[in-house]
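Researcher: Go.
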Amino acid sequence: MGRLEGQVAIVTGAGGGIGREHALLFGREGASVVVNDLGTRTGADAQSVVDAIREAGGTAVANTDSATWDAADAIVAQAVDEFGRVDILVNNATYQRNDDLWRYTEADFDRTIAVNLKGYFAMIAAVTPQMARQQAGAIVSTSSASGFGHPSHAAYAAAKEGVVGLTRTAAMELGRFGIRANAIRPLAHSVGVEEYHEQTKPWRELMDVTMGASTKTRTPEDIHPRKVAPLVVWLCTDAASGVNGRTFFVSGETVMLYSEPRPKTTITQEGGWTLDDLDRVGPTELIGGVTNRFTLADHPHLQAYQD
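Model: Structure:
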C-alpha cells in the first residue's frame, strides 16, 4: 500500500521534466493521476507518462488541455468523472520568455502571467469546491527563485512571486475547509536547458553579477528532476498535514524552508515624517547605509544600454 492509496492527484505540466517525475511518484505511491500537459514543450507528452504509470501497476489518465482559466473546470471535471474525487492539485505548468524588460510585448507578458499565475489561480478555484466537500485537500504550486530577481525574466519573475502570495492566501482562506496550500521554488535540470543557456547568453554576465551562484550550472544528475518530486509528494501526505502556507526550495540533495517576510527595521516619529526628516535619518536608521548594488559604477564591465 502506498502512502496515497485511494487518492486522486492532478498534476499540470506533467508531460516532461519536473512534472513528469511528480506524476510518476504519485502513481508509485498509489494515487490515481490526471497527467495534464499541452504537449508543446520538447519531449513533453502526457500519454507517455500515463503509459509509464500504468506499466508500473498504477492508474492514470491523460489530459491535454491548457491549464489556464478556460479549461480549469474541465480538468477537474475529468478527474471527478474518472475517479470520483480530487485530493491533490500540483500546479506545475509553466511558460517563460527571456528578453530585456523594455522589449517585452503585451502578448508575451499576458501569456506568461496566464500560464504561471492566472492558470494556477483558476485551477485552485476550480478544485476548491470538490476538496471542500471532501473536507480535505492538498495543493502544491510551483514558484521559482526567479521571483527574487532575474534579469531577462521580468514577467516570469513577477508571475512566480505572485504564486507565493496566492499560496499564502489560499492557505489562510481554504484552511477552514481542510485544504492546505504550499509552494516550492525548485531548481532542476530539464530537457532544453542547453537551449535556455544559449537564449540567455546576452544576459549571462548581468545575471552572474546580480544573482551570483544561482546562475551557475551543475551536472544534470546533481539536479535531476526526480530529486524534486519526493518533497512535493510528501507535502500531500498525512505526514505533512500540519504544513500549510509555506514555501520551500528544493534541488538535488537540498530542501530549505524559507522564512516568511517580517519587518526588518522600524522608525517612528511623532506627527509623521517629512522629506527632510527622511533625508536625515532614512539612509542610516532605516536602510542601514546600504547602497544600490546594480549600477555601472559598481560594475563598469557591464555594457550600458545601446539601442
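Model: The chain has one domain: 8-257.
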